[in-house]
Amino acid sequence: MLVYHLPGTFETREAHLDLLWEAGATGLEERAGLIRAYFDTRAELDDDIADGEWRDEVEQDWQAQFKATLRPVLAGRVTIVPPWLRHEVGAGQTALVIEPGMAFGTGHHATTRMAVEALSALDLGGRRVLDVGTGSGVLAIAAALLGAEHATGLDIDPLTIPIATENAEINGVPPGRVAFAEGSLGLGDDTDEVYDVLVANLYAELHDLLAGEYAAALRPGGPLILTGILTGKLALVRAALDREGFGDVTVREDGEWVLVTATAPAQ
Ligand code: SAM
């Protein structure tokens, strides 16, 4: 694989990329201020980009390397795995298969893992669960696999919806038990539906804004699971939960990330 390495500056970057394309580059990549231009054969280069270096590199399959690093993630009664590690799920564990892809939520982030653990600690039998910011669908699918009667996943990013839907199919969750839709709470387009459990892996400022919506969307006493919160922002979330009358607040930390649980106020 023939690669031309060209150090660049912010000012010259655009012009250099144009010149490399014009010289016949088949692909361009930037890493740490260095432009890497892929060529089939050595090309005649404009003087402005002539101070780089041609290198013959061994082809690397970055995707294969990334896949090889993935390990099963234990989260309470659930083990989250990519499809090719399904056989590594231990006896008695519920397998949750997520195809690593474009949407956030492979299980490898501490927040996702803690949220699945918190769901796993509940008795979800017959419960209706709302997952706000569903991404790959991992939390809604976990809820369905843990026995929820129905799980709804909402996300403002429309690209996540087909991905989450496909992940539900991979896990054999029937369409009647899970639904994914573009949207959120508090956008004015949500229904007045009330859920038994609400889980949201977003970020502290958004939890602060949505705390009133969480209270309205949960049945009185219903469990709330919030994560995506950096330790330094915990006070903001605590204050929002106090303001909206949530009780039984618990906090769990994993490195710089926090998961908070609480119960919805009596209406
Ligand atoms: N639920 C998955 C998990 O736990 O791994 C994904 C969480 S990811 C950190 C946050 C997701 O929330 C993203 O997919 C993002 O598009 C979505 N999101 C961001 N703001 C949102 C909002 N206001 N309402 C709903 N979804 C939102």
Give a short synopsis of this structure:
By secondary structure, the chain is α/β, with parallel strands linked by helices. It has helices spanning 10-22, 62-69, 110-120, 138-145, 160-170, 204-217, 234-243; strands at 2-7, 27-31, 34-39, 53-56, 73-75, 78-81, 94-97, 128-132, 150-155, 178-182, 197-201, 223-230, 247-254, 257-263. S-adenosylmethionine is lined by residues 104-105, 112, 115, 132-135, 138-139, 154-157, 160, 184, 201-202, 206, 228.
Q: What percent of residues are in strands?
A: 25-35%
Mean pLDDT: 93
Number of DSSP helical runs = 7
Rg estimate, integer Å:
23 Å
Distance between the termini: 65 Å
List the helices and strands in order.
EHEEEHEEEHEHEHEEHEHEE
Can you give the helix content as a percent range? 25-40%
Ligand identities: S-adenosylmethionine
Q: Largest beta sheet, briefly?
A: 7 strands, mixed
The number of E-state strands comes to 14
Low-confidence stretches: none
Principal-axis shape equals: elongated
Protein name: Ribosomal protein L11 methyltransferase
Keywords: Cytoplasm, Methyltransferase, Ribonucleoprotein, Ribosomal protein, S-adenosyl-L-methionine, Transferase
GO molecular function, one term: methyltransferase activity
InterPro entries: Ribosomal_L11_MeTrfase_PrmA (IPR050078), Ribosomal_PrmA_MeTrfase (IPR004498), SAM-dependent_MTases_sf (IPR029063)
Structural features, described:
The longest helix has 14 residues, at 204-217. With 267 residues, this protein is of the alpha/beta class. α6 (204-217) links the parallel β11 and β12. A seven-stranded mixed beta sheet has the order 10-9-8-11-12-14-13, with helices on both faces. The relative contact order is 0.10. The chain has seven helices and 14 strands. α6 (204-217) runs parallel beside α7. The radius of gyration is 23 Å and the shape is elongated. It binds S-adenosylmethionine (SAM). S-adenosylmethionine is lined by residues 104-105, 112, 115, 132-135, 138-139, 154-157, 160, 184, 201-202, 206, 228.
